[in-house]
Design goal:
The protein is mainly α and 375 residues long.
């Protein structure tokens, strides 16, 4: 009897993966218990959290002082956080010594900036080019007029010595991020230039700035920048620290961008030249977009470091968020070790939220620009 073979004409139904390979269980096996070492590390971290989190919760919630007219109650209960201190000083943390009746101007600048930033960073937002014009050209002018004031618009003048708190930290970081990236790109291109003078100037600037600490750059900007101005010109005290922040960040970003430029294969340059593209069109349309996409993690890492380094501007007289917290400890009515710990815990939470948000956004952009790569 001849052998009978059965050949299926249609494929069978797709079966779901095994239960241990999908859902929360599958995710845990792949990410937390994929090996013995991973399992040991996961269990150790779980044990550490089980030991520390209950005590942290008790300190921050159960034993915390949420309302008090002064620090006496917090000094009497030193086994918990003193959130009453944060609530009482919150306005100073946000605005510094900015006049109370004019703080709506700070709120307006922050709200406009937040809307424009979301508009720019949202990949599917319409008319992002128009948003860029508003953010880079119109917004700085409107923001300065609102914050500083203008007699012609019946806005009282507010000296920058009264500026302080959160909005100073955000303003310093925003100015540093916005202006340091294009300057860093130009420095990176200058360092790879075939013109000896341009290359030498770029190398000297980058190496000199990277060779000194940030606080030294701030002091140099504070004391040396007025020497380059015509006699009789007076700079606002807020401007030199901003210039120092931008130049310091630009030097580090230049090296990040240069690494991205060097990572591109030479075929990209040769292909652009074969198409007849000039240097600037080749660089702007082909080379820079690819180079910047390669170094997004490094660029965002520099931005995060810059945001945290804004605390150093207090050394040249600016009252940033952390300096505002330090000044609040000098109030005799609100003094004590518990208040000190609570204030710094609040500052740590503030910086963590912003830095974590930047890192998550950069990870999303990486996935969007590299759809074929496994993240």
């Amino acid at each position: 009897m001849a052998d009978v073979a059965y050949v299926r004409a249609r494929s069978g139904p797709t079966l779901p993966p095994p239960l241990m390979r999908r859902g929360p269980v599958g995710w845990a096996r792949a990410n937390l218990f994929s090996s013995r070492l991973s399992s040991a590390a996961t269990l150790a971290i779980f044990a550490l959290c089980a030991w520390a989190l209950p005590e942290l919760f008790v300190w921050a919630v159960t034993r915390a002082v949420w309302s008090a007219p002064d620090g006496a109650l917090c000094r009497a209960h030193q086994d918990g956080a003193c959130w009453a201190f944060i609530a009482h000083k919150l306005d100073y943390f946000r605005y510094g010594s900015y006049p109370q009746g004019q703080r709506w101007r700070v709120d307006s600048v922050e709200a406009i900036g937040a809307v424009l930033i979301v508009w720019l960073l949202w990949p599917r937002a319409p008319r992002r080019g128009f948003a860029a014009v508003l953010f880079f050209i119109v917004y700085p002018i409107v923001g300065f007029v609102l914050l500083h004031g203008a007699v012609s618009l019946r806005l009282p003048l507010v000296d920058s010595q009264l500026w302080g708190g959160v909005f100073v930290s955000l303003l310093t970081a925003l100015v540093g991020i916005v202006f340091s990236l294009p300057i860093g790109v130009l420095l990176a291109l200058g360092r790879r230039s075939r013109l000896p003078v341009v290359k030498a100037a770029s190398v000297v600037f980058i190496e000199c700035v990277r060779g000194v600490p940030f606080i030294a750059v701030l002091f140099m900007a504070e004391n040396m920048l007025p020497l380059f101005l015509p006699l009789g010109w007076m700079l606002d005290r807020f401007l030199p620290p901003l210039v120092g922040t931008v130049l310091f960040a630009a030097a580090y970003l230049a090296e990040e961008v240069r690494g991205g430029l060097q990572a591109l294969p030479r075929g990209q340059y040769e292909g652009a030249q074969a198409l007849g593209l000039g240097y600037w069109r080749m660089t702007g349309l082909l080379i820079l977009p690819q180079a910047l996409a390669l170094v997004i993690p490094g660029i965002v890492n520099n931005f995060i470091g810059l945001f945290k380094d804004t605390t150093l501007v207090a050394s040249v007289g600016m009252v940033d968020f952390l300096a505002a917290i330090d000044n609040s400890f000098k109030d005799p009515a609100w003094s004590g070790p518990t208040l000190l710990t609570t204030g710094y815990a609040f500052a740590a939470l503030f910086y963590f939220v912003f830095c974590y948000g930047m890192s998550r956004y950069s990870a999303a952009i990486e996935r969007r620009l590299a759809p074929g790569k496994r993240q």
